[in-house]
Backbone:
């Protein structure tokens, strides 16, 4: 049996389900809508990328978990006509799901019309889908590939869920991503679809300022993180700390095989210092 299948969402749109992971991608509001609500609008992408107009320096986006390219294509559409240089660096261990999406472009309306640049990306590793936007594929292990990309100003963090892919939500990964932001000495926003307490704890301990993210689909909130607290509209606060203290699933992700549990005394003490500061 193939590893992926088309599914129809409640909205009537089609998306892709991974049989291996048992997860449907963009299940709430569909690929295009979710990408816009979660990443494009919340990141203030057009406004922030436009600041680089005339500078010659590209605005750098890390698309972590390329998958079927829903987030990358939404960004490309939104940036059409921006007249400022942008680089999108898409990371994934495999392009199998993108190839599946390409073969079902008619059903996946967000792919329709972008078949040519997707084929170029798959064949050559780079593509220029619209003027001023350079798109590069990093196929392989994220730990190895992230050092090949310039420091990001926006991160779309969209791997499979923490339950299915805990390694990509680990303290080590978030620490390394945060350290890469120092390379460019610039501000960065990271958006993702989960509201998991454990993920928010992990982000905070990794050096990110974490906050409550925008709703999307059936989710009343998601998670956003930034290199500077001032970039967040709703940063996590002392009230959230109380919920962490009482949670049975607040331990940070440290291992490939995550074991849910309450936060340790040492981690909670560190978290208190971070949130209070």
Residues:
């Amino acid at each position: 049996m193939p590893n992926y299948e088309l599914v129809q969402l409640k909205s009537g749109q089609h998306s892709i389900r991974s049989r291996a992971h048992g997860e449907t991608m963009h299940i709430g509001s569909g690929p295009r809508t979710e990408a816009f609500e979660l990443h494009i609008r919340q990141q203030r992408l057009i406004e922030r990328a436009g600041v680089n107009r005339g500078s010659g320096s590209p605005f750098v986006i890390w698309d972590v978990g390329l998958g079927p390219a829903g987030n990358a294509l939404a960004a490309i559409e939104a940036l059409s006509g921006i007249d400022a240089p942008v680089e999108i660096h898409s990371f994934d261990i495999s392009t199998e799901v993108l190839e599946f999406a390409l073969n079902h472009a008619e059903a996946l309306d967000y792919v329709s019309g972008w078949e040519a640049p997707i084929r170029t990306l798959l064949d050559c590793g780079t593509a220029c889908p619209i003027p001023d936007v350079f798109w590069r594929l990093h196929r392989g292990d994220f730990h190895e590939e992230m050092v090949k990309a310039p420091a990001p100003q926006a991160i779309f963090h969209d791997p499979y869920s923490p339950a299915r892919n805990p390694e990509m939500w680990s303290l080590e990964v978030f620490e390394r991503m945060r350290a890469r932001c120092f390379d460019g000495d610039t501000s960065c926003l990271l958006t993702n679809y989960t509201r998991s307490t454990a993920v928010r704890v992990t982000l905070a301990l990794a050096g990110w300022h974490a906050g409550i993210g925008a709703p999307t689909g059936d989710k009343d909130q998601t998670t956003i993180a930034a290199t500077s607290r001032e970039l967040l509209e709703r940063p996590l606060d002392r009230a959230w700390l109380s919920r962490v203290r009482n949670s049975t699933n607040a331990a940070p992700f440290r291992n490939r095989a995550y074991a849910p549990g309450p936060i340790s005394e040492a981690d909670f003490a560190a978290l208190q210092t971070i949130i209070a500061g």
